[in-house]
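[READ THE FOLD]
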Amino acid sequence: MKNLEFKFEDFTASDFINNAIENKVSVVETTKYFLERCKNDKKNALLEVFEKDALKRAEELSHKTIRGKLFGLPVIIKDNILYKGHISSAASKMLEDFISPYNSTVVQKLLDEDAIILGRSNMDEFAMGTTGSNSAFGITKNGTDDNLVSGGSSSGSASALASGLCLAALGTDTGGSVRLPAAWNKLVGFKPTYGSISRYGLIAFASSIEQCGIFTKNVTDLSLLYSVLSGKDENDASSVCYVHDTHKMLCPTPKIGRIKEITYPKEYQPFLKDTVEISIPNLSLSLAGYYTVATAEAASNLDRFDGVKYGSTVKDAESVGDLYTNVRTKYFGTEVKRRIITGNYNLSNENYDIYKMGTAVIRDLKKTFEKVFQNVDAILLPTASIPPVKLHEDMTDPLKLYNMDLYTVTANVTGIPSVTLPVLPTGLQILAARGNDYLLFNIARRFEK
C-alpha cells in the first residue's frame, strides 16, 4: 500500500473505490483504520460497530479479482435498516435485542457491489424526530461541532460521515430526515423519487412517504450510490424502475425556479440570480398534510409492537389488555407515544375528516408541483428553516420541532426527489420532478462547482 499524503477519511467515496480497485490502498488496512475510528466515536453517532464481520469481509474482498462498483467502501447504515444477523433496533427499547432475519434490499445491494458495512448508527426512535434527541440511547452530537445537535432523524449517519467514521452512509427520509442532518453536518443529502429505491427491509414509520436516503461528501459520490441502490424490487410493491430521458438528464440550460411565497436569507441571493419566480400558494399547507398522514401511518405501522409477536415484552400483565398497555408504556419513548396518539385520533370515527383533509392537501400539492415542473426543471429552497440547534437548547416544544420540517416535507408528500448541498448553515435544497433524479444530480453539480 502506498503512503498517502492525507488521511483515509479525506477520501471521497469515488476516489477511495478507484484506489482500492487499483490496489493503491489496502481494503484490509483501511477497514481496520475506520473500525478504530468507529470504536473511538465521541459523538454517540454509532450504536454498534460490526468489527468482526467487517474485518472478515475485508479479508475476503482483498482476494477478489472481479471487483464491484463499491469495492471496499466503508459504509454506515441507520439502525432501522435490516442487516441479517445484526441488531436493528430503530433506536428503541422496544427492539433493543431484535436481530434481523434477512437483509434489506439496500443492504443486499451494498454487499453485492463489495461495500463494507462498519456499523449501525444512532437515530431518533422509529425515525420520529428532527434533532436526533429522541433516541432511547442518547442524543447524537453534530459531526462538525460538539456544541450542536446533529439533526434527525438520521442523526448518527450524518454525524458519522461528517466526523470521518466512514465514507458514505445510509439513512431514511420521511419528512427531511436525511436532508436536514446533512445540511446541519455540511454534507450532501438525498431523498430519491418515491419508489426508486426499495423500502423492503426498512422498519416502517410512514410507508407512503418514507424512502431510504443517502449521505455523501459530493454529488458524484451520490450519483454512484444511487446507481447501485435504485431499481425495481419484486419484494416492494411500491418500487418503480424509471426510464430516464438521456437528453433531459444532460439538460444544458436548466430552468431553475424559486418560490415567491418564501423569504430567502440574503446569503442565498448569489444562488437565486437567473432564477424564475414561481407561485405555490398551498405550500404552507404541506406541513399540516404531512403530519396528519405521517402520524396516522405511524399509529398503524407501530400497532404490531404489542409484546406478543416480537420485540420486548413484560411478565407481570394480568390480561392481554394489560400486556399491550404495559409493553407500549414501558418501551415506547415520549415522541413515539405522542405520534401514535395523534395518529389514532386522526383515524378515529369522530375525527376521520381530519385525515381526509390531510390526504386532500397532499393530492392538491402533487397536482400543483406537476404543473410547476412543466415550466421549470428544478426548484431552489432552503433545506432547514433555522441553523443547527445548540446541544443543550430546550427541545421539548413539539410544534417548534415540527416546524423545522417546513421546507423538507414537500418532497416527501409529493414523492419528488430532493438533494441538499452544504451551502450556508441551513443548506441549499434542490427539487426536481418525479423520476428526474439524474437530472437533479446534474443541476446540483453546477451549484456544487
In short: DSSP finds 16 helices and eleven strands in the chain. The domain at 11-283+360-449 is CATH 3.90.1300.10 (Amidase signature (AS) enzymes).
